[in-house]
């Protein structure tokens, strides 16, 4: 079995596409089912590698998992097999994805201890976990890292609510500390909390389960611990990173695409950032319509200086869409500075774009200047390997816009986050073959 896409580019696409449920929300709310012995039903779950791995991991632990239909599952975490955490299987699977770190908070809260092998995820720079463990320690847990087996361990007979100033607004770190605090004794205040829609959704689901959380959507969460949580039903939001990726795809390939049911009010500044690149988009009902565009022109700042697009914790612009913005800028008129502040190694994929004919200067590991080609020159197809999930999709978008054939290897990286992407893009007219 090989794992590559062969793409014949240069053809405009047309049609409607529905975004999958949000990957990063799925990883949080599926971990949260461990907080109760009652049944939790979650719908709109994307059929992607990372999420399926987490569901499998919960099943291995003893959670009763039932697949009701393609995108709806029920979970019942009645009995958890504590021996599983000592097994080789846990070591192999637990470290296989970044999201598995979020089983630690719920396990600690419910059973007083948890272990996790150093988690996986993209190689996009150092990805520390201090925020998670410093938060657990504040709640009264003992933490140790065993360098021999690579396990992080936390232990607590009683978690006690307290004031926690997170050392950074970590997305998964906030989720983990929130999930530990909901069953702690007394009141926990979390300041410098991340507040991405993923976290808002998690907090809303926990509230429906009986948790007492205020400040949802802000960076100051107050949690009054409760004794027990119960079952609930929860539906995932559409994946905002997929929505941004499809906006970029439409613009870069000059395609008319309608993105269905986007829950526009949850997208924050994402549509505006693409609009500042000159891309036209219209809200029709709750769909985003992107007309076919031969030209789009990047705005300058009001003083005439070159636009910078940078990432920031929510409600700032998500780092997960910067690679896509960078690629789309290649065919814009004008220039833009892309500043990836959070991750250190997420811009190196520009090498491949240079080989395709893009005009980009990699200023340093965090910054790249894109000088738009204004569709005067097309990119050319090449063979390349996808280094991470978002660079992978960006390269796919570049390949679909390029003249000639491209091959993208290591597409597991793409498929860990984008559901049946080849089939869905083929339905829009893309020429993609899986080899
Ligand atoms: C499974 C999951 O949900 N993954 C997402 C989650 O990862 P994850 O939760 O692992 O990322 P974190 O929010 O912890 O941090 C991401 C990076 O940004 C840095 N950082 C973070 C906050 C801050 O205020 N300043 C700062 O510099 C961190 O040091 C780290 O290098 O959030 C990231 C940041 O949105 C996204 O890219 C990932 O897709
Ligand atoms: C970096 C990402 O994922 P993860 O945190 O799972 O590596 C992402 O979704 O862009």
List keywords for this structure.
UDP_GlcNAc_COvinyl_MurA, 23 strands, globular, about 425 residues, four-stranded mixed β-sheet, alpha+beta, cell cycle, binds phosphoenolpyruvate, cytoplasm, UDP-n-acetylglucosamine1-carboxyvinyl-transferase, Chain, EC 2.5.1.7, 2 domains, UDP-N-acetylglucosamine 1-carboxyvinyltransferase, about 25% strand
Low-confidence stretches: none
Q: How would you describe the shape?
A: globular
Q: Which range best describes the helical content: under 10%, 10-25%, 25-40%, 40-55%, 55-70% or over 70%?
A: 25-40%
Mean pLDDT: 96
- Taken as a percent bin, the fraction of beta residues is 15-25%
DSSP summary: helix tally:
14
Adjacency order of strands in the biggest sheet = 21-22-1-23
**Ligands (ions, cofactors included):** uridine-diphosphate-N-acetylglucosamine, phosphoenolpyruvate
Q: Which assembly state applies to the chains in this document?
A: single chain
Count of distinct structural domains: 2
Q: What is the name of the CATH topology of the largest domain?
A: UDP-n-acetylglucosamine1-carboxyvinyl-transferase, Chain
Q: Quick one: biggest sheet?
A: 4 strands, mixed
Q: Let me know the CATH homologous superfamily of the largest domain.
A: Enolpyruvate transferase domain
Note the gap between the termini: 8 Å
- The CATH class label of the largest domain is Alpha Beta
């Amino acid at each position: 079995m090989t794992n590559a896409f062969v793409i014949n580019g240069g053809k405009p696409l047309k049609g409607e596409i529905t975004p999958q449920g949000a990957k990063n929300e799925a990883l949080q709310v599926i971990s949260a089912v461990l907080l109760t012995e009652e049944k939790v039903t979650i719908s709109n779950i994307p059929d992607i590698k990372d999420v399926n791995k987490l569901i499998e991991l919960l099943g291995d632990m003893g959670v009763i998992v039932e697949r009701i239909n393609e995108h709806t599952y029920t979970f019942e975490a009645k009995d958890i097999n504590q021996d599983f955490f000592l097994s080789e299987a846990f070591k192999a699977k637990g470290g296989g994805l970044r999201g598995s770190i979020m089983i630690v908070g719920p396990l600690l809260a419910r059973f007083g201890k948890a272990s996790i092998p150093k988690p996986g995820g993209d190689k996009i720079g150092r990805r520390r976990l201090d925020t998670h463990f410093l938060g657990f320690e504040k709640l009264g847990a003992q933490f140790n890292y065993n360098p021999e087996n690579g396990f992080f361990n936390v232990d607590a007979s009683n978690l006690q609510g307290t004031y926690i100033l997170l050392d950074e607004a970590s997305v998964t770190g906030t989720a983990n500390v929130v999930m530990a605090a909901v069953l702690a004794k007394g009141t926990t205040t979390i300041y410098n909390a991340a507040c991405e829609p993923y976290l808002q959704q998690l907090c809303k689901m926990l509230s429906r389960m009986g948790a007492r959380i205020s400040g949802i959507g802000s960076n100051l969460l107050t949690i009054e611990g409760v004794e027990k949580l119960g079952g609930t039903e929860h539906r995932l939001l559409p994946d905002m990173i997929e929505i941004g990726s499809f906006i970029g795809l439409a613009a870069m390939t000059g395609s008319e695409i309608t993105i269905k049911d986007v829950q526009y009010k949850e997208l924050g500044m994402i549509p505006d950032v693409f609009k500042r690149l000159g891309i036209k988009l219209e809200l029709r009902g709750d769909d985003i319509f992107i007309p076919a565009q031969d030209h789009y022109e990047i705005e300058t700042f009001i003083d005439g200086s070159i636009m910078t697009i940078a990432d920031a914790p929510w409600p700032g612009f998500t780092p997960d869409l910067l690679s896509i913005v960078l690629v789309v800028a290649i065919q814009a008129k004008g220039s833009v500075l892309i500043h990836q502040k959070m991750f250190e190694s997420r811009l190196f994929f520009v090498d491949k774009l240079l080989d395709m004919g893009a005009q980009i200067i990699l200023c340093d590991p965090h910054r790249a200047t894109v000088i738009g080609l204004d569709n005067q020159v097309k990119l050319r197809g090449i063979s390349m390997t996808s280094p991470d999930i978002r660079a992978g999709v960006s390269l796919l978008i570049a390949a679909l816009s390029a003249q000639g054939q491209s091959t993208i290897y290591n597409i597991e990286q793409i498929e860990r986050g984008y559901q049946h992407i080849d089939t869905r893009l083929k339905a829009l007219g893309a020429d993609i073959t899986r080899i």
